[in-house]
Structures are given as structure tokens and as C-alpha cells.
Amino acid sequence: MSISKKLSRLACAIGATTVLSASLISADAMAVEKIRWQVPLAFPSHLVGLTTPIKHLSESLKAISGGDIQLRYYEPGELVPPFEIMDAVSNGKYPAGYTWIGYDQGTIASLPLYSGAPFNMEPPAYLAWYYEGDGKKLLEEIYAERNIHPMLCSIIGPEGAGWFAKPVEKLEDFDGLRIRFAGIGGKVLEKLGASVTMIPGGEIYQALERKTIDATEFSQPAIDKMLGLDQIIKNYIMPGWHQTLTTSHLLVNKGVWDKLEPQSRALIEMGCESATLKGFAESEWAQPTALREYEKQGVKAQVLPEEVLRELERVTNEVLDEIAAKDEMFNRVLTSQRDFMKHHSIWHGKGYLPRDYYQYE
Amino acid sequence: MSISKKLSRLACAIGATTVLSASLISADAMAVEKIRWQVPLAFPSHLVGLTTPIKHLSESLKAISGGDIQLRYYEPGELVPPFEIMDAVSNGKYPAGYTWIGYDQGTIASLPLYSGAPFNMEPPAYLAWYYEGDGKKLLEEIYAERNIHPMLCSIIGPEGAGWFAKPVEKLEDFDGLRIRFAGIGGKVLEKLGASVTMIPGGEIYQALERKTIDATEFSQPAIDKMLGLDQIIKNYIMPGWHQTLTTSHLLVNKGVWDKLEPQSRALIEMGCESATLKGFAESEWAQPTALREYEKQGVKAQVLPEEVLRELERVTNEVLDEIAAKDEMFNRVLTSQRDFMKHHSIWHGKGYLPRDYYQYE
């Protein structure tokens, strides 16, 4: 081999080594794996605070990773019906789904304690219980046997207590009422004599208009606004005793999750935490605007009398105890939540100003 | 040139090109710039929810970037005294600082409206005003002329109203009181006849023990616990009317910030949002534990009577109006906050359950 040839090879080798090591440093610096997930949604992507976090997550992960991590979400039913998201993620048909996990309470009884339950915590205490207490650990345990890794990825405050053809002044007003009401709150109203049905959000307007139901709850004021219920019903009742918070979760197939680079996992987790904070801010921003618009349209925003709330809480605890007696995991989650609420009550009750301090002047 | 030599060069060129393009894809995929910031702190890094977010931020950025982004924080005074952090970031002595921006209210009158002010919003509404309303925009405007880019990077709930040698039952009890009290709340107490001093946290215990002051506020229950005040004072008063929230901010030199890759900026912003959520959760977790421990040690957790709170709010508004008359930016921020609180009050007052619903049973 000539000297020039040797030199040429050496230079080439040095060049390649340099480039290679730069590449290795870079690969070490940030997981360069490509993530392309199709993510089915349970609710439309425009519900403020409830589903808008999936937009934030998708956009920010794409921007930060320079396009390497792309979570493309699909509106309800485009890929799979809302009630089938859990199974589709579990069996790997889709790598991830973004859903209201209360939809799966028929299969996993304890999920409503995570998706929003009567007289449960409000968002600040819930975040404490979820991240610092048992919440996250127990939810991961619940989903592990279904091959799913769950992540909290949105939290908003209370719902409204619903839309009623007539005002609610006493507990007896629920007796005989034909009402659309979801989850554990529905069981409470059944105990009080209501006839509870669960019809999809898209059919509520028609059912009220045709008077096949007398009342309904759906979500928060700003989300209910999209259904246009204020056009036919003038009694809007608060607060949403039956759901003191609502969450959404990103469910990821556990096999897919475990195979990700640790850096990708950390980035997606951080993305959900950030999206949760921003979604909560959006939600608190939007609710008063919706309520003010209701006022302008002649909707009466009624607050349930405290004695009615106390009775609703009493019956709620009966219902919760009944479910806990039948389902071990429900009992574990409920006990953990009740213990923390009892503990947290001293701060919740004494540490914050009275609710009406805004209006002292 | 021999054929073998040509082939060898070709192979080498192909190899180098392949490696190079892999490297370019990787560089495109994630900003590989190295960030090494020394970050001085205004408070010790172990204050739950208040400063612990800087730990979360530092650790998660390092993990996600594979060590490329390192924010190394330094305890108060190690690099620069707490009151000099803003200047040190402004003039580029340090690229960033993590601070309680109320410390700079002598220079920028409007900052206490961001760091925690009397009868201001609680965290959920504040997050709405900050991200969705004028908050973030105005704060960026405030700091722009000082060459600083500010980022909200922690939020916690109300402080306690303080530690008092004697219980506070009526407004007159503040008259003649020698009290350590920070910020705008201190001006309110001065109007009520108190003699207000501002001594550093580390000297409070001694001042109370030597009876050179009769009372003090410092922070939230779990943070006050670290000062050991419960050993010498038995009257702990809530709620913290004078600071309905407390924030920390990451201040970044604007020249440094603007030169960062867009991906790095997006990652740091996301990191602060995530750290804020986790810090808030930690804080809500820790407060009731501190209060329960106080109870065991014979500390009486007193709640201020509503008529005292109403009077404190009346005087607060006088003080706020006086500052607003003298400082244009204070007036702009205050007006924006008051407008939003007025708007938000319908939701804050009616949308949530009464504070004591935890204890109905």
C-alpha cells in the first residue's frame, strides 16, 4: 500500500470516527428513537381542560423532539369506539389511548374513584393523593394485569350538578325524576327514587326536547355550553357534588411502554404533567365565562341547599360502602382516599379563605 | 489511482456520509446544545413545594437531555445574596436564578402581585389568569426592560396568618403589636397600628424567644415547622389572608434565553410547568401533616373570624389603591387581576362545594 493510500485511509478512518463519536454523543444526549403512535380519543379533542391536554401533549412532544415523537390523536370512533379503547390498548391494537377511564367501570369497579366520584377530593388534594400518596401506585397496579401503563394527563374541577326542568329544593325532588346521570352519582339518585338512564352526550338535547327525560348532567359549564342545553332548560344546578373533579388518562400498552428509552418515558411523563397544569388553567378560565353567558340567556344558576348536600353525601357513603363490600380493589382505593381526606380536612377547612372572599367588597 | 483505492475511497465516503446523515438526523431530532447553568436560589432548596420544584426541574432536564441540559442550583448566599439575584441575572453574571420575586418589590412595585398578595386569587384561578389571561404577558413586559425572561416555576396555596403570643379575636388586637410581616400585608397591619418589622427567616426564632417581637408570619405550616416556632408560641392563626398563594420563578438572562435553540426553550418551559404541578401536589400533601403535629404539641390552630377577615380585606383594598395610584404597572396588573376575580367569582363561589364538605359525616 502506498503512503498516500495509507494516509488517505487514516484520514478517512479519523473522519469516520469523529463523525461516529459525534453521533454517539448525540444519541446518548437524547433518545433518537422514533415514536409514531395512533391515539384514539374517548371524547372530542376540543373539550376545554378535559381533552385539550392531548393537543398540548402531542404538539409539545413533537416540537421538543424535533418530530421524533409524534402522538397523532383521532376523534371518537375514527379508530375505535370510546368504550373499546381500554381493550384496544391492552391487546396492542393501538399503542395508546386518551380516555375518560370511568367508561370502563363495568369491567373495573374502582376506576370511577379516579375519573371523578361523588364527594371526592377537589383537584389540589387529589394531586397530592395521586402523586404523593397511594393514588398513582394503586392505579398502576389496577392496570398492570391488563398490560396497560396509565398516566394522569388532565384534571379539571367540579362538574355542574345538572340541568333540571324544575328547580331542586329538597331531597324529595329527586324522587320519580327521569334523569340522565353517569357513574356512582347515578346510583345515589336511584336510591333517592330517580329513574336513571345513561344516554350518550350527543343525544341529550333531543331527549330533553322530547321530554323523554326531565333532567341531565353532562360536564362542566363550559363543556355543557357546547350541547346547547341552555336553549331548552332554564334551571342549572351547582355544585357538582357527584363529581368533584374529572380526569383524563393516557393509557399506554405496557409492552410498548417498557420498550421505550428511559429518556422518552421521562419526556412523555413530563409532557402529561405540563399538559395537566395548562388544561386546568384553561378550564378555570372558561367556566365563569360560560356561567355569565348562561345568566344573559335567562338561565338561573341555583346552588343546592346545604341540607340537600349533606343528605346526598350520606347516601353517597352508603353507595360507596356497598361497592367496597363487593370489590376488594375499590375498597383499597376508597379507604386510602377517605384516610387522606380525613387527614387533609384540617388544611382544606381552615387553611383557605371562605369561598365568598372574592366578593367581600 | 488503482481501482482498489477508488473503491476504498468510495466505501469510506459512503460510510462517512451514512454516519454523517445519521448524526444530522439526530441533531435535527433534538437540540444537542449543551446548557450548563449555575442557578442561585433565594430560599433553601428543601422548602416543600416552594423551592423543591427547582430540584425536579434540574433532575428531569438532565435525565431527558441525557446530561446535555444541567441546571446546577446553589443554596442562598453561596453564589450571591438572595436580594441580588435579579441584578445578577439581569447583568449576565449568572444565566439564571430561582427566586421569590417579592424580594424585589422595592425596585419593581408590581412584583408582589405575582409572588403572593393579600386577598388575591388562590392557585387554580391564578393559573388561569397567568396562562390564559394577562398574567404571563404582563410579567414578561415587566422584566423585558431588565433583560430578563421570567417563568412561573412553582405555586403553592395560602400561607398561615402567623404565630401570635396572644390569640387574635378582633381587629384592635393588631394595634400596637410588634410583628414580623412581609410585603403588602405588612402595610395593611401598619394601617391597623401594628409596628411591622421585616427580619430574615433565620432570626425569627430568637426574636420571639427574646420577646423583641410579639408575632410573626413566615410561610405555610409545613415550612414554618422547620423554624421550630411551635416550641415557643402556641397560637397559630389561619387562613393566610395576606398571601393566598406563593410562587417561585425561574429568571433567565434574556440574551441567554433568546440564543437557546427553540427546542431547548420548549423543554425548559415544559419542565417548569411539570415541576409546578408536582410541587403543588407535595405542598398539599405536607400541610395537613404539619398541622396535625402542631395539634399534638398543644398549638391551637385558630381561624380568624369572618368580620376580622372582612375588615382586613377592606384595608387591603385601600393599601392596594394607594400603591396603584403611584405606580402605573402595579395599577395595570391589579386592574387585570381584579377584573378576572370579579368575573371568576361566580364559579369560585357557586361551582365548588362548601369548604367543610369533607367533614359532613
TrEMBL record, chains A, B:
* Gene3D superfamilies for the chain: Bacterial extracellular solute-binding protein, family 7, Periplasmic binding protein-like II
Identify the Pfam families for this entry. Answer: DctP (PF03480)
Q: Which GO terms describe its molecular function?
A: metal ion binding
Q: Tell me which residues bind substrate.
A: E159, R180, E217, Q243
What GO biological process term is on the record, naming one? transmembrane transport
Cite a GO CC annotation: tripartite ATP-independent periplasmic transporter complex
* Transmembrane residue ranges: none
The record's listing under InterPro entries reads: DctP_fam, SBP_TakP-like, TRAP_DctP_sf
> Source organism's superkingdom?
Bacteria
Keyword entries, A-Z? Metal-binding, Signal
Q: Which residues are the signal sequence here?
A: 1-31
Q: Which residues bind Na(+)?
A: F218
Query: What name is this protein filed under?
Result: C4-dicarboxylate ABC transporter
The species this protein belongs to is Stutzerimonas zhaodongensis
List the top taxonomic levels of the source: Bacteria, Pseudomonadati, Pseudomonadota, Gammaproteobacteria, Pseudomonadales
